[in-house]
Amino acid sequence: MTISKRQTSMRTHMCGEIGTSDVSQTVTVCGWVAKRREHGDKLAFVDLRDHSGIVQCVIDNAVDVRSEYVVKITGVVRPRPDGTVNANLSTGAVEIGECVVEVLRSAEPPPFPVDARADDVDENVRLQYRYIDIRRERMQKNLRTRAKVNSAVRTAMENQGFVEVETPMLVPSTPEGAREFLVPSRKEPGSFYALPQSPQLFKQLLMVAGIDRYYQIARCLRDEDLRADRQYEFMQLDAEMSFVNQDDVLAAISEAVIAAAESVTGVKPDPIQRITWREAMERFGVDKPDLRFGMELTELTAIFSSTEFKAFTGAESIKGIRVEGKAEEFGRNKLDALTDRAKKMGAKGLVWLKVAADGTLESPVVKFLSADEQAKLISTLQAAPGDLLLIVADEWSMTCEVLGTLRNDLGRPPVHQGPYRYVWVTEFPLFVGVDKETGQPKPGHHPFCQPHPEDLDKFETDPMSVRSLAYDLVLNGWELGSGSIRIHEPEMQRRVFTALGISEEEANRKFGFFLKPFTYGAPPHGGFAFGLDRLVAILAGEENIREVIAFPKTQSGQDPMTNAPTRAENKQLDELGIRVLPPKV
RNA sequence: GGUCUCGUGGUGAAGUUGGAGUUCACGCCGGCCUGUCAAGCCGGAGGUCGCGGGUUCGAGUCCCGUCGGGACCGCCA
Length: 585
Known about the structure:
Blueprint: H1 3-6, E1 26-38, E2 44-50, E3 53-59, E4 70-79, E5 94-105, H2 123-128, H3 130-133, H4 137-159, E6 163-164, E7 182-184, E8 192-194, H5 200-208, E9 213-221, E10 233-242, H6 246-265, E11 273-276, H7 277-284, E12 298-299, E13 317-323, H8 332-344, E14 351-355, E15 361-362, H9 371-380, E16 388-394, H10 396-411, E17 422-426, E18 431-434, E19 441-443, E20 470-475, E21 478-485, H11 490-500, H12 504-515, E22 525-531, H13 532-539, H14 570-576
Parallel strand pairs: 6-9, 11-17
Antiparallel strand pairs: 1-2, 1-4, 2-3, 4-5, 7-8, 9-10, 10-22, 12-13, 13-16, 14-15, 14-16, 17-20, 18-19, 20-21, 21-22
Helix pairs in contact: 4-6, 4-13, 7-10
The chain binds one RNA strand through strand 1, strand 2, strand 3 and helix 2.
């Protein structure tokens, strides 16, 4: 039993752990009154709750205890009388009788029921009274799941020789990447620290420093708009290793993720499969594929190589998805909505076809397709009567992205719904897109990422096709985290900066403190970071990371409980040399 | 920055074609009740329908604005 560890001077047992083996023992439990059921002056039932569960206490005299009073009850454990066992309660076979009740603290009635009914309460109210919300079984379970994951991750990393090193929270601002939180310097008015978006620079310097294997359960901060899977501050398992290749990193991180999952679910996940970025885009149209369902993108370009259908002629890439059995369900309105969705993403259009009962195709565009094209379309997509077929013809990346989005819209289950499908996505492109202002390529991951050794010859001639040694870990369509093998040679770093259009002067100004150490002997190294909030949410069966964070912010970045952020006193601002502009009209 | 959506006693909801702050469940307060268990019965209190403006004889309901919550897009190297 775990009871002894939780025994204190005030209690002998936890409420939820009392069972038939304790019968006839005198016990003392402490907790909150979950429910009181009175039957006149001579009998009352009090359900007492602590984080372990609920136990029924039988009171034989009048006592004024109400919802959420904090009480200490001493009594004798006894089996419940025949016919009064409560199968819905883990302690339902027994009760505590002959109770002596001591009220430790009275309480106002709670603003919402402290049980599963509060799942329906406005989240803002739950957050305003988070300390009551957390009394509930769901939140207790979620926070304890989180602790289990943290613990399993730590153990897994320690077992592999990783050393925990804490990196600073007050760091220099690096304008690339996510928007940062700034902290004014009092000693040097006008100067600012930034709160770290990640320990990226420091952990690489720890490799230069010979730590060899670093990890940290690190708080990271990004001042970007919030979402179901994003908070201003979030926790990452951050790790970095020296003298490794990509396989070494993936193996080490997999170990931690698998340990975390097993600690919560009790089931050890299979080895995590891998897919290249290119294949993920080809088959799923996204770089964070959800492998739990089919509806994969099917290549159709060859079929329409000499088509008469103008929308398809000359298209770089034509792909389709088969939405099984949905032909009837999708009337004109829904199809128009899908088309709008595709167009808003930048596609020229969306072609839809329905497979009729006799196996023929029905669509406004079917008259433009030859019999041969129609036959090949049906066979390639393995279409059957009742299916809806969606086709996009555009540039390769547009075709993939649009169909990938439609695939998720039409088929993706809630993120926490089993099974858990982990996947490593490797070989991300080194550069993604072009900066609108400078016309230079933008880094796909970050500018310290090692280019793929097979693509070095294309570096200057065709930079957009250069792959990198960067990789993401994806679970059920959520990006858990990403990492890469880093550049450790200053010459290679210069090449990448040049490709990004960053001059030597600019590089030294922005990253000087980071680049100089690399001239003193940097080992080959690589690392990874994955978001613990997201992993815990999925493992806890939640689809919102706020449910696994004790005190999260709302979508607008506020805390309804503390009212943060609050206005600063003028005195504080004066000391910091800061003046606040009047609000914009 | 944008699209969509929600806002009605402490909580969750309903509120029809614009016709009195109306209704339901839970909670709360008081009473009754010796085996209940999200107890039962009786009684009671509790609301500036988020806020502001407009249309109207009359607005929870229609219109405009605004504030707040949520989902998503942008953004998140």
